[in-house]
Amino acid sequence: MPFTATVGDREVPCEPDQPMLDAFLRAGVWMPNSCNQGTCGTCKLRVVDGDVDHRDSPADTLTEDERAAGLALACQARLRSNVVVETGGGAGRATHPLRDLTATVREIEDIARDTRRLRLGLPEPLAFHAGQYVELTVPGTAVRRQYSLANTADEDKVLELHVRSVPGGAATEKWIFADLTVGEQVQVTGPLGDFVLPPADEDDGGPMALIGGGTGLAPLIGLARTALARDPNRKIVLYHGVRGEADLYDLDLMAELADSCPNFAFLPVLSHEPGNSTHRTGFPTDRFLEDIPSARGWSGWLCGPPPMVDAGVKAFKRRRMAPRVIHRENFTPAAT
Ligand code: FES
């Protein structure tokens, strides 16, 4: 029999082996969440009544002292009784429910070095916010891997994912880059994550700085297109950091956006293989510091490998961006 988890005036059923976060999101009750694998700490909450099993919560994300103080990671904890939890940041409000769907592969396109675009067709719309991600289940296994959506939310029957091959990767080298074919069915779970714009009526319309590394460009495309649909004159700078020119993609799409939106700029930056390219070189965070003397009143969006995200946070703060409007999505190695 399921237990119940209560936050504010919302009470959701939770099966004994179901992570608490999963139960909340499937019921359409929002909780802060990001990695969904116990590494980021975003979903940390306080259990004020009842008992949980912390299961695989890593000790460096949830310390012994925190456990003793009643904290838990919602994405890992299972209920041992009915619980009442508290967490900040608007938890408990309605959100797009987490769902499992069977998608059909519509398109597989090699778009850059070791990088593929997948377009998956859905049998029915999936409500999500631009910038969120989905999980794909590797066929015949329980292995799930997370991929950001490059879509805007109105493209709700087609999901676009940008996938970089990982040497030895169970989902990439052994499946998506090996034998995945058009027409194949794929199990999708989503949407997840809170790397999203504020709702339109709470969006101040201020300038935005977006920095993505590699396929970290994917959610930034969705965010930039959504923000520009709200206001085509909005100032947005989007830096794409890659090793070399062979890693760049969607340059035509970016050029089209820049043509139709006068204050949008797309800025590729090559870190290791400048070759004869006309693009700028180095690290995108350094180029941001060079270009933008003050980011006071801006918001910031960082997606990619953790060192790039950390450097981006420092760069944004150096330019006086308020910490509460610095949003980050770390591409961390998949949990085993
Ligand atoms: S630790 Fe739970 S969402 Fe990251």
Task: Give your account of this protein's structure.
- GO terms for molecular function: 2 iron, 2 sulfur cluster binding; dioxygenase activity.
- By secondary structure, the chain is α/β, with parallel strands linked by helices.
- The chain folds into three domains: 3-86, Ubiquitin-like (UB roll) (Roll), CATH 3.10.20.30; 99-192, Beta Barrel (Elongation Factor Tu (Ef-tu), domain 3); 200-330, Rossmann fold (3-Layer(aba) Sandwich), CATH 3.40.50.
- The protein is 18% helix and 33% strand.
- The protein has helices at residues 20-26, 64-68, 172-176, 217-230, 251-260, 284-291, 306-318; strands at 3-7, 10-14, 44-49, 52-53, 71-73, 78-79, 83-86, 99-112, 115-121, 133-137, 144-148, 158-164, 185-192, 208-213, 236-244, 264-273, 280-281, 299-304, 326-330.
- Helix 6 runs parallel beside helix 7 (306-318).
- The chain is globular and about 65 Å long.
- FE2/S2 (inorganic) cluster is lined by residues 33-36, 38-43, 61, 73, 75.
Record keyword descriptors for this entry:
Rossmann fold, 3 domains, alpha/beta, six-stranded parallel beta sheet, Elongation Factor Tu (Ef-tu), domain 3, binds FE2/S2 (inorganic) cluster
Name of the level-1 CATH class of the largest domain? Alpha Beta
What is the number of helical segments per DSSP (H or I, 4+ residues)? 7
Gyration radius, rounded: 20 Å
Hetero ligands: FE2/S2 (inorganic) cluster
Q: Estimate the mean pLDDT confidence.
A: 94
Alpha carbon gap, first and last residue: 29 Å
Q: Strand order of the main beta sheet, please? A: 11-10-13-8-9-12
Number of domains: 3
Per the principal axes of the C-alpha atoms, what is the gross shape?
Answer: globular
CATH-assigned homologous superfamily of the largest domain: Nucleotide-binding domain of ferredoxin-NADP reductase (FNR) module
Please identify the structural class as seen in this structure: alpha/beta
Number of strands: 19
What is the string of SSEs from the N terminus onward? Answer: EEHEEHEEEEEEEEHEEHEHEEHEHE
Low-confidence stretches: none
Strand content: 25-35%
CATH fold title of the largest domain: Rossmann fold
Roughly what percent helix?
Answer: 10-25%
The largest β sheet comes out as: 6 strands, antiparallel
CATH 2nd-level architecture of the largest domain: 3-Layer(aba) Sandwich
